[in-house]
Amino acid sequence: MKFYTVEIEARRELGAYTLISYRWPGEKVEPGRFVMARAAGYPVTLDPFLARPFSFYDFEDGVASLLFEVRGRGTALLDRATRTVEVTAPLGRGFEIDASAGRAALLGGGIGVAPLKILGRELSARGIDHDVFLGFLDAGTAAVADDFAGASVATMDGSAGTHGTVLDAAPDLLEYPVVYACGPNAMLAAVKDAAGPDGLRQLSVEERMGCGNGSCNGCVVPVDGGYVRSCVEGPVFRAEVLAW
Amino acid sequence: MVVRERVTGVDLSVEMCGITLSTPLVPASGTLAKEALGEVEGVYGAILPKTTTPAARAGNPPPRVAETPAGMVNSIGLQNPGVERFMEDLDAFDLGVPLFVSVAGETVRDFAALCERVSEDGRVAAVELNLSCPNVEHGGLTFCAGPAAVEEVVTACRAAAPTKPLFAKLTHEGVVGNARAAESAGADALTVMNTIPALTIDAKRRSVLVRGGLSGPAVKPVALKAVHDVARTVRVPVLGGGGVTSGTDVAEFMLAGATLVQVGTASFVRDPVEILAEFSDYLREAGMGAAELTGALR
């Protein structure tokens, strides 16, 4: 795991979410991979002590970005960071992309929309048709959808887009040979159910992590016969692998 | 190599139980996966993988980790593929430095069988007995519950592995009595200490979040005292650790009496190269070699 102190290039408020972009110092960034990030401390912050996992939101011309919502001490400190943040090397396994598979549906729930931005960019670059469906609690969190041209939006309180879950904003997922999703486990389980067993179905899980490099075994998800680490074997899994 | 450039001009080597180590740093068991080994070459004087058990263990259901001020609580449940698969994969941990293997069983017989199994392998330089992991219950207690329990399991392991260096890893509770018992039963060194039993609660959901072991800088003063107390009581060397986050922390543990120092949770948030480089700076300033530092409190 490589640790970097990176300069913040820009920050944007997207409704309830914040986007921080920074010059990426490491190796190739791929959709679905993540970094562990935290506010800089000397030599570490003690509270919170651990870094937080964040998917790459976007990557262009050497500048990477991460999207977050202030939920606790760690994200509050990130929100206040003005000059630098600490990030680790790109971690985990990202989305499999198969140009021959056909049309893709991208579904995001809440802050789980994050990896879909860079994924959509990659699919477009490869000429793969795709539709984007984003679900949120309310209009405040749904504001990030403005950054996803052509996306269909749903909110649980009906304050923006379709009233309901992300699945209420999407057509029959069985029609899509490829489905990608990221969001809370309950949403991913519902997507897995709705998308059926055929085709390429990939889910990016959001788990609490300790180390991010496979060492602590803290971020496991259930699979047949036990648990696997979402930081190394994931965070993107084929839907059929997850024992939900 | 980057590591070497940053530690020039100091003698970092130490010796313990007849084993020469290029640095006194060792990863604490369960905090360094084989996937992460490539990044730490040159930092650790020995490698110590996650505890292995007689059979595969799936581990505890999530949530397994919770963050706390200056630390974390974990309850992993010794997830591991079992000793046979672990030994098949042992070469993955070969960084050209001595390899210590951590074992845990549910019975004294388990422990002895594990010691016999791993010590017969020439690649294993020493065996650490995980007597204190608070996650694994044995009739409601751990093998570290008291001197009698420690003595029984160490005696059995000593008999099963008569020539291989054996380290007994102890929890801080009752550590002095347990250390005496382990030494008299034939342990070659003592690892002090394991995580501290702890609990986190999710107030919003009114539920227990994680009940497990606390690690990180929060436990450091407790660990330092345990190391200091043990080092003054026994003659065998001590592997000290608990919340080590900086080079100064390494020096403090050695001054308290540790011969080797384990780095665990901090490696999740800091490059351990930095810890070694800071420790080298300390030695350079003090005009001392690492081996001279053990117990060198004024």
From TrEMBL, chain B:
Can you state which reaction this protein catalyses? (S)-dihydroorotate + A = orotate + AH2
Could you confirm whether the keyword Ribonucleoprotein appears in this record?
no
Main enzyme class: oxidoreductase
Q: What is its EC number?
A: 1.3.-.-
Q: Where is the active site?
A: C133 (nucleophile)
To which protein family does this belong?
A: Belongs to the dihydroorotate dehydrogenase family. Type 1 subfamily.
Q: What is this protein called?
A: Dihydroorotate dehydrogenase
Species this chain originates from: uncultured Rubrobacteraceae bacterium
